[in-house]
Amino acid sequence: MRSKTVVDSFPNRRTIKKIQGLPQASHDVTNFIKNTPEQIAQSLGGGGASLNVANADPMEIEKFNKANEILRGQGQPEIQMFGDDVKQTIEEINHKILKTVLNQCRGAFKSFIAGVPKEGLVEEYNTFIAPRGKSFDDVHSWDNLGVTNKKDPLRSRLMVLLDEVAETNKDRLEKDVLPEFAANSGLQTDKEKKRVVLMSMMSNFVRAIYYKHQNPEKIYGVRESAINTLNEVGKDGLIRRMITRVKSVFRR
Hints:
Helix content: 55-70%
Oligomer: single chain
């Protein structure tokens, strides 16, 4: 019998039950980020294809709409897209996962980033960030993490962690990673670029946990690395807080 892993019960039973109650899509929007509408139509034609576009970028949705136009012209069944009715629920779930990660899994996230190769960080930025040309406050990861409200205290807490990780990985980011980032009119400073690529990785970390309970077939690449790291490193926030409290008692 397989022993339970950290992620099996993370973040908590109530949230896991909510995730499992949401409708599932047959395909992952992310897999088609580099495809043209023609390629999407060819790949998903034939019927039965569905996509959850709740957190998809408008540019991506437009590609799928054009793919459906092609399929209609060919007399084929269209790709079924849904998401508006579950978007708020998904944001609330991811917000909960992020909050729990910041409370309990900072060490796991740091270990995860340390294990992502230079090529992985460059690919993340050049594929999912630069082409969209969004400013720092409007990048797509805020939606994926469920922290679209700029006054949400979780945004500030996330920035603190990202800056810690950026400082720890300063040499690698500045010497090996930043020089290979594609041009992006939305982000002006190196600090913003480092924050955004690390935030995108946090999005992968959070969504990996979400998909582990919703559709494990979507666990691959950096998401798989995130799950493996969390299971190996475990939760750390609660233990650290307990140690801090005990030490403070003895200092009195």
